[in-house]
Amino acid sequence: MVATKRDYRTALEYLETFKKKDGLSVSELMDSDVRGGLTYNDFLVLPGFVDFPASSVHLQTKLTKKITLNTPFVSSPMDTVTESEMAIYMALNGGIGIIHHNCTPEEQAAMVKKVKSFENGFINAPVVIPPETTVAEVKAMKEQLGFSGFPVTENGTFPGKLLGLVTSRDVQFLEDDSVAVSDIMTKFADLTTGHKGITLSEGNQILRDIKKGKLLIIDDNNNLVSMLSRTDLMKNENYPLASKSATTKQLLCGAAIGTLPTDRERLSLLVEAGLDVVVIDSSQGNSIFQIEMLEWIKKTYPNLEVIAGNVATREQAANLIQHGCDGLRIGMGTGSICITQEVMACGRPQASAVYNVCKFAEEFGVPCIADGGIQNIGHITKAVALGASCVMMGGMLAGTTESPGDYFYRDGKRLKVYRGMGSIDAMQKTGKKGNASTSRYFSESDKVLVAQGVSGAVVDKGSINKFLPYLYNGLQHSCQDIGVKSLIALKEESAKGNVRFEYRTASAQLEGGVHDLHSYEKRLHN
Ligand code: IMP
After folding, report:
1. Active-site annotation holder among 103, 325, 338, 358
2. Alpha helices by DSSP H, 449-499
3. pTM of the model
4. Beta bridge partners of 211
């Protein structure tokens, strides 16, 4: 006999009779003292209801108590990841870059200054030449650099007193290559210049009016300070998500420092350069050195936002929250270049670290950054679902056009170096003990350096101008599948138990990956 089935129109009513939603709440997933720590790959988020387009999902989130970003993307303070170029494009795309400190304080401050003085469209470090440069030299520079408009300044310095401009038209048909550019350049008196402070659209309009390829921008003392180029203007992209200061409209910039007494002087230079947020960079943040540094910074620079860390437990976090940090960086031993867990026997699987620390920090309104081990968009979604506000990425952003270092070829692949800050290479960068990298690992006085990271290579990923929009769109689609309209909703609905989870067995992980193909190509975006 066939059992009578329920009327299909009562499916929703019937669903109501279940005491529990399908799957597990985040607390059921994570709060087990006996099961062992979880990683991002150990669980999945269950799908929800979709009644909105992915493009409407908001990814706004907090970096620190006072700083809100339009995306959760933060680049790691590593010398193969974040210098000024990376920090500029991270900020333009709605994230923030944290400039590494494995360099002199002056070099680091100059990088911060470059980010803070960046104006989209303006060339802030133009190649300039002295007046005695010969035409032959200009032609050679054109060959090498691919462009030929060179401002001529006194002594060839930048910024420096502007004397004139030489362009390809000036040198093209000259037969005597030994002539100095001072004899053939358009002289300062005959140049139309723009004044420091003009906007991009004003500069653009002048370029249109004068029908020239270059507009040189000068200050009150006729010093060249930047330049506009018509070809660059045409290529200019719009960055609606850019992370900017509400008052100065400058891009936001972060930088890392250590916990040594000399780091106080370093910080003063960074603050002078316009720093918005400082990261106290230590692999184990729960130390007296960090607490003293944190207290000193809050007292000396009350308006500077301070991110402390790294931590992986509630106890570590409590100490730093108690001493006034504005944000926390979570992760110990989970970075892609990291051997800390293996060598030190110390650390924590990242999903457990993120969940436990974020849950505690949330009580005090301290935003958390999940740092290390982010390998794909799904990991970002999971970090936020576990309570993180932002994610810090090293390996994901290494090998991009904007990361420091030159490309090289090996085995037919275009590569860039990516190394841990605790690798021997990074710790020996300055050739002497006591550099920033050794202090991150409390190793400045060691006779034998004990590596906590490796040095390797990653493949060319192209520009982050393409990669970050890929992460952004992917994250929007991920939220859509889960049925949440923002990152904030993802965090909140997860904490309330409405976003549901499930453990992923080893075979579930195999099932969730590509399988049973003879071969395939994994292209992540167009
Ligand atoms: P990734 O995004 O997985 O490549 O991890 C980057 C993170 O690893 C950084 O933000 C640091 O927290 C951490 N890290 C950087 N260098 C080292 C190292 O040498 N050993 C251990 N962890 C490191």
Report:
1. 338
2. 464-482, 487-496
3. 0.85
4. none
Q: Is 6 a catalytic residue?
A: no
- Ligand 1 mean position, distance from CA 464 (Å): 19
Query: How far apart are the C-alpha atoms of 214 and 196, rounded to whole Å?
Result: 15
164 labeled part of a ligand binding site: no
Q: Is 347 in the pocket of ligand 1 (CB under 6 A)?
A: no
Residues whose CB falls within 8 Å of the CB of residue 150, separated by 6 or more in sequence, listed in order: 126, 127, 128, 129, 133, 138, 141, 165, 166, 167, 181
- Mutation test residue for ligand 1: of 78, 81, 311, the one with most atoms within 8 Å of CB: 78
Tell me, using a 6 A CB cutoff, whether residue 374 lines ligand 1.
yes
Burial of 381 (0-12, 13-18, 19+ CB in 10 A): buried
| Digitized pLDDT (tens) for each residue of the chain, 526 residues in all | 678 999 999 999 999 999 999 999 999 999 987 788 999 999 999 999 999 999 999 999 999 999 999 999 999 999 999 999 999 999 999 999 999 999 999 999 999 999 998 877 788 778 899 999 999 898 888 887 777 789 999 989 988 999 999 988 888 788 888 899 999 999 998 999 999 888 888 888 888 888 888 899 999 999 999 888 876 666 566 789 999 988 888 899 999 999 999 999 999 999 999 999 999 999 999 999 999 999 999 999 999 999 999 999 999 999 999 999 999 999 999 999 998 888 889 999 999 999 999 999 999 999 999 999 999 999 999 999 999 999 999 999 999 999 999 999 999 999 999 999 988 888 887 544 446 667 676 677 777 888 889 899 999 999 999 999 999 999 999 999 999 999 999 999 999 999 999 999 999 999 999 898 998 888 888 8
Q: Where are the beta strands (DSSP E) in 402-447?
A: 408-410, 413-419
Q: Is 507 labelled a binding residue? A: yes
User: Is 440 among the catalytic positions?
Assistant: yes
Nearest CA to ligand 1 atom 8: 335
Instruction: Determine whether the annotation assigns residue 335 to a binding site.
Output: yes
Q: What does DSSP assign to residue 55?
A: G
- Ligand 1 center to residue 337 CA distance, Å? 6
